[in-house]
Amino acid sequence: DKDGRLQVLRSEVAERKVCGRCGAAMTMRYFCDGSTGVAVETIDRESLAEYVAEIVGKGKGKGEMMKVKEHIFVGQKPDWYRIPEDDEARQWDRFGAEFEDVIERWKRGSGVKS
Questions:
Q1: What is the pLDDT of residues 72-107, one digit of tens each?
Q2: SS3 string of the chain?
Q3: Which residues contact 104 (CB under 8 A, 6 or more apart)?
Q4: Is the Cβ–Cβ distance between 43 and 49 less than 8 Å?
Q5: 8 beta partners
């Protein structure tokens, strides 16, 4: 709703959570393997670091920061978002090739039409 709570949108292959106030994508949970993608523009590294420190302080975590494994849909990224030149994560115009295969195999096995 418009008070800022997350809204859930579902498709054949995933569940997307978006900001109820502005509609910005937050996360995408894929049914094929249960993985969750996080929209990078939603991450404030300073706040995340504080959260990780708090979790570690309570003995509930290892204190490791999330690491970007790959950048997907790079051609659709906003102009203001810059991928650092020293970023070693792979970049794709769509999903990574391996994940495209996972989605297609899942679709065939679950009866979802491509």
A1: 888 888 888 788 888 888 888 888 777 878 888 888
A2: CCCCCEEEEECCCEEEEEECCCCCEEEEEECCCCCEEECHHHCCHHHHHHHHHHHHHCCCCCCCCCCCCEECCHHHCCCCCCCCCCCCCEECCCCCHHHHHHHHHHHHHHCCCC
A3: 114
A4: no
A5: 17
